[in-house]
Amino acid sequence: MDFLDIETIKAILIIIGIDIVLGGDNAIVIALASRNLPEKQRNKAILWGTGLAIGIRVLLTAVALYLLQIPFLKLIGGILLIYIAIKLLVDKEDEPEIQAKDGLLSAIKTIVFADIVMGFDNVLAIAGASHGHIELVIIGLLVSVPIIIWGSKLILHFMEKFPILVYIGAAILAYTASEMILGEKRLEPFFEHYHFLHYLLPIASISLVIFIGYLFDRKKVKTI
Predict the structure, then answer these.
(1) Residues 6 or more apart from 148 whose CB is under 8 A from it?
(2) Strand intervals (E) in the chain
(3) What residues contact residue 205 under an 8 Å CB cut-off, 6+ apart?
(4) Minimal CA–CA distance to 111: which of 158, 70, 149, 62?
């Protein structure tokens, strides 16, 4: 695999984008789980908790990559990812319920456990965007995780100030979902016969997600 190839660079940028967009909740978990610790222990909790979480995330993504080789799972995964993209817009005000922990080990366990529970959408999206290359997953995580940890407050601030960023994130997920569906081996002859779907499906997926998110926002404004 050529890392200077345009498709490879595009995949890495999409993975980084997915990580940052879906990493807001993880940043909140890290802050909440370690806030009661002394500063020295807090830094250890963040480093160890995040390090273990990255390792588990890579492992789970590798499992997801393997599972996506099963017939029609890419199709199912793509449809599920569209649902996750819509949920990102509809539930964007939800916050994870995480209690602050006093002990270093408790904080680390909380960070890792919460990452596993909350990271399903992230794992599925990254598995779809990486096109079967686990090295792209690792590169994407190594670049994006430090950004999430050290720039989490900034990211969350900009996402609250500029809601369009959440829509961009949802569009990235919708695009990844369409790529997963188009990559379904069992449907390859169908997509080759109707080649226009390679252009139409990404546009339709993004439009659907943005439209539903827009409708939800309008409905929410009317109820205020």
Answers:
(1) 19, 20, 23, 26, 27, 155
(2) none
(3) 82, 174, 175, 177, 178
(4) 149
- Residue 183 backbone dihedrals phi, psi, to 5 degrees: -85, 0
pLDDT in tens, 142-182: 777 776 666 655 665 676 678 787 888 788 889 988 988 99
* DSSP per-residue codes, 48-113: HHHHHHHHHHHHHHHHHHHHTTSTTHHHHHHHHHHHHHHHHHHTTT--------SSHHHHHHHHHH
- Compute the radius of gyration of the chain from its Cα atoms: 18
Instruction: Write b or e for each residue in 109-144: b if 16 or more Cβ atoms lie within 10 A of its Cβ, otherwise e.
Output: bbbbbbbeebbebbbbbbbbbbbebeebbbbbbeeb
Tally the C-alpha atoms within 13 A of residue 20's C-alpha that lie toward its C-beta: 25
Cα separation, 10 vs 170, in Å, equals 17
Distance CA 159, CA 153 (A): 10
Residue 29 tokens read as 């978990």
CA-CA distance, 109 to 57, in Å (whole number)?
A: 15
Q: Which of helix, strand or coil describes residue 133?
A: coil
Q: Determine the straight-line distance between the first and last CA of the chain, rounded to whole angstroms.
A: 52
pTM for this prediction:
0.69
